[in-house]
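Cont'd.
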Amino acid sequence: MARHLYELCGADPDRVFSPFCWRSRMALAHKGLDFESIPWRFTETDRLAFAQHAKVPVLVDGDRTVADSWTIARYLDEAYPDRPSLLHGRPEPYRFVAAWNDAVLQPGIARLIVSDIPPLLREAERSYFVASREKRFGMTLDQVTADREQKLPAFRATLQPLRLALAHGPFLGGDAPDYADYIVFGSFMWARSTSPLSLLEEGDVVLVWRERLLDLHGGMARRSPCFGA
Amino acid sequence: MARHLYELCGADPDRVFSPFCWRSRMALAHKGLDFESIPWRFTETDRLAFAQHAKVPVLVDGDRTVADSWTIARYLDEAYPDRPSLLHGRPEPYRFVAAWNDAVLQPGIARLIVSDIPPLLREAERSYFVASREKRFGMTLDQVTADREQKLPAFRATLQPLRLALAHGPFLGGDAPDYADYIVFGSFMWARSTSPLSLLEEGDVVLVWRERLLDLHGGMARRSPCFGA
């Protein structure tokens, strides 16, 4: 049965960098499900019309089409109940992890790396990306990330909830990873795929945890195109 | 069967204000379990020697003694599996809610209200409290909370993860409250029990949620001694 994941990529089709697509990519690997990645780029909304959705990720699993990373995670647990669980039958507490990620971590990373993304895009997508993000931030992208080395300590301070949670086990999911890990890891993969900036310091348990995630599922994430470490 | 919850209180034994005790108090109410509150004050460590623990909450449930709010929540789910669940058989994702609460929300509230607490304590506890907190903050408690009205917007901005999570249902637990709600609510009850400062603005979904929690379990939290609204 054919299984396709439509994922956001840059000019290089192997450089998949959307944090939401990384959630779904890791979720599929967690379930042990093979899939073919279908490169998709900003502005190609027509190509997703079949899914009645304007954004990736979109999963086509045989005759089922599922859009949106959250819906994909729930679908995978329902369709493959005998495989390792992502949400353990109760998505509610994972909503808070996603809320923290979307309200704090992802915007925090964006302010450090957003200017690194345009050079990775084709011309058509670059124009769209720069215009939409400049509008969102109210300044040029270089202005957003100016003096970013000086902003790193404040960014790292916002990761304290991760450190406290990881004091109880190697993964946010406890002894084994679950969807909480993939939500947060998706944001770090977004940064790793697009920017040379080292977000995390040596000795930080969040870095140790990220390395652990990079090694999961045969090192799938570690092999993905990135900059530096 | 006698059930006793040792709880931190001020000079007024009815003014229970520890955020961790409030977690256990709400957890017991969630389970529909009656209990007698045993007032306990800072420095009365001898009175907890039987529990081999130096802090409250401590629950004595018949012949079982359970210390620490997290352990109490797990114990209640195990001992009363037929009552409404707190952690739904999987504590791990609730660890992150607690981590965010302990790293962000509780310190944020402390910086706004800590100077309101000493007048509520007896002389013996007041000396201990002021000395230990001044040492922690490296300044007087009045200095910690100086200009607090001006600090409120920044504090309220840190609540954004709660707002995103509450977009999906009336409680962090979804359609019904669970331990995620009680973890966060405990911090708000700490503030409500000790300070006249209004942490939340009209129109904030976090305020609407807090009102919902105040009404739960027959309005137990709403009836507790507080200042203003």
